[in-house]
Amino acid sequence: MASSHGTPPVFNNKVIAWIDHRLPIFSYVEKEYHTFPTPRNFNYFWNFGAIATVMLVLMIATGVVLATNYTPHVTLAFDSVERIMRDVPQGWLIRYLHMNGASFFFIAVYVHIFRGMYYGSYKAPRELLWILGVIILLLMMATAFMGYVLPWGQMSFWGATVITNLFSAIPVVGQSIVDWLWGGFAIDNPTLNRFYALHYLLPFVIVGVVALHVVALHIHGSNNPLGIDPKGPQDTVPFHPYYTMKDGFGVTVFLIVYAGFTFFVPNQLGDPANYIPANPLVTPTHIVPEWYFLPFYAILRAVPDKLGGVIAMFGSIAVLFVLPWLDTSRVRSATFRPIYKWFMLVLVVDVIVLGFCGAHPPEGFWVPLAQLGTIYYFFHFLILLPILGKIERPLPLPPSIADAVLKKAG
Amino acid sequence: MRKALSTVAVALVASAAGAVAVSAESVGAFETDNTPPQLHWHFEGPFGTYDRAAAQRGYQVYAEVCSACHSLSLLAYRNLVELGLTENQVKSLIKDIQVPDLNDDGQPIERPARLSDYFKKPFPNAAAAAAANNGKAPPDLSVIIKAREDGPNYVHGILTGYVPFDKLTPEQIKEFNVTKDDYFNKYFPGHKIGMPPPLEADKVTYADGTKATLDQEASDVVQFLAWASEPHMEARKRTGVRVILFLLAMAGLMYAVKRAVWADKH
Question: Which of A7, A352, B31, B85 is such that its CA lies 20 to 30 A from the CA of B2?
């Protein structure tokens, strides 16, 4: 490698050296993406940060092109999306990439979050890194929700109705907040216009928070599957070419699955009802959000009281903000936590079950199942994690990363 | 390493499969015994294409029957050349269609349709469409195949699923509250449908000699409407095959380079 971490690199190219002396962008890239010492034992779960970054860039690129062809007006929005599909050259490609890209961005981020939880990546000294990640998740949810409204189909309209009406549960000022969100006394053109403006704005806010997320990451470096800190150069490899290559491979495999959906079943993840133009006079038999919101939707409906449901839904995200302090175990990786490991997998099953509850009308056994799932979700974070850290006996940690890797390789 | 990769694959497949299962059930308005017959369609599958001959016949069914009530507002007559017709053939298909326009004095007139015109709407506006159809405007058919769960089979089912009043059992009449003036359809949610049976055998006479059975007419119009819903489907699938082949080759290359780079670290 050209230089070791800490010593400033020397550039042979005079132009680069001239620029770098005045604005050290090349030194920055060299330091943070080339020589950056990275634990040598990442598994493929560590690809998903890079994958999520690629998806963010892809969503912004396709989104800007869509925006140049889209018309944010209640009488024209639906047809303008179909015009993109029919008359804009390769418009169908851009639109299907964007539409399925939302789903695959969430898949990447959900796996990334699971990775963080399973390997304890949120623990000291990475609490702020984790919190910035939760902020990104919240911003993504807001962006995705408002983006889904833009085609102005039946689910756009009625999804927006359900979600904006949640704020009416707030005592005293609730209805005023709803009117303020709507820009009027019903969901109409002002609502569509502001959602469009915000849907264009928020992704760039996400880019900003992602930048902070990366800065925070590069202070203490990445966690790793063993959850122990690197103790010296034998425990790390330079980021490039080792992880640029490994991320490149992981990103490509992910893109294959994404392309499979985009080109062969582009409407599989969406609701057919969103190809029916929005009609404020006809309520769909069953209003459902996009699949990536279903667990939260189930939590919302699991509480019989409207305000209670809203609090539970927002609470299910809020609890993630304090996760670093709820988990009292000093051991990061679930690999060395024999009990936590299983409860972590139970939590994944719980969230998937909640997803199915959210997809079904709240009747019959789905109601108690969603309630049970919701109770378990909060039990995991608020009761189990604080207690488990005190009573669990972790397995002995290996002396170093290199030791563990070389022992495994035999 | 390999184990972790398979874990990722399982996680991805599981989340995708969960999403598919969820979206497949999300409309949920039908009872299970309402599932329309699952037919094989020429445009299905990763290499499926539109059956041009069937879609042309389907246009004839639309033009002679459906277009009396249902608009197809997102399509222009010029689009019909994509069904394998020449411009002159399309011109002769639309030669009797008069579309509204304004003359140079700004007065409303009717003139013969041109290739650049969008499909003529059967009613001047939604209110007129509703007024002529017992208060509910017939839906536009431009994306109808994408706008219904299992669209092709559903539309085919609706067109072939009518049961005459005298063939209904007393239990069905009671359960669904059917009267002599209602139309009963096996596959419509709630079964009582506003649309009178639109098709029957020999409703149209096909120029290519195909026998116009009810099932043939329904299948043909579904082929036409599937194309109308997704006119670039063939280009999409062709592009998709190339993209996936490229990505597979790229993934192979990436993996080989990654192995080589990591060779001294294991």
Answer: A352
